[in-house]
Specification:
2 domains; 8 strands; about 20% strand; globular
Amino acid sequence: MAALKEGRWDQLCLQAESAAAVAETIGAVLAQGGYAPYDPFPGGAGTPATFKKFVRLFILPEAEGWLRVLGAQDAALLPEMLRKLSAGRTVLHAWFTAERGALEAYRDGRAEAALLAAYLGESASAAAPESQPRASNLPSEVAKLAEAQGVDPKQAERLIGRFAGRLFGAGAAGVQAEAARLFQSAWQSAGGQQLAAQIGRLRLPFDLRTPDFETLREAYHAQRLLARRPSARLMESERAALQALPNVGAVQPIYMGKA
């Protein structure tokens, strides 16, 4: 995951019967806040030029009874959303900004430490993805693809560097430096580390840190493109994302914006 594009990272986890019902509840809360749906993916109508503020979410398919909602939330609407989603059931809310992060458990709109304690075990390794020194400055998905194809990531990085040199000339060094900065994991921030420490103790059948939102978005975009044009050529990063998430067609996007 690269920098925090929306200034925050959020994930909601809940045991619900229907992803469609969860999507309807989320959409209703956002609509009350002035948001309207849009579809920026292949086959959709695109992003209205009047929209200036966005909420971009994905609901992952049910896994062992759990639904997960990935994507940065509108902080002003979160209390109402959590109140409605947690009516009669527990909702886990994981979040962080650059400065702070936490894992909270809600029921009937109230955060309760006792509820969260039921999902926490003994302290475990909380090392966040990509928190260790990287072998290269390639995006993680591209690095994984390079490894799968038997390509040295450092060699791939040098090839990209030569391409940048031809494309940008004297400005190539600046382009590469900016790319390296963008690919630094937001999990290395103070807020990311605070949340990672709690995730290391969380007893759930999945890791909250994967998949990352950008990989999910890119894989979904590629899947929509191929559904529309099966012969379409994908970028390397799109192929890598689709390879990492072959069942991405089952996710449910919630893209809403407002002026």
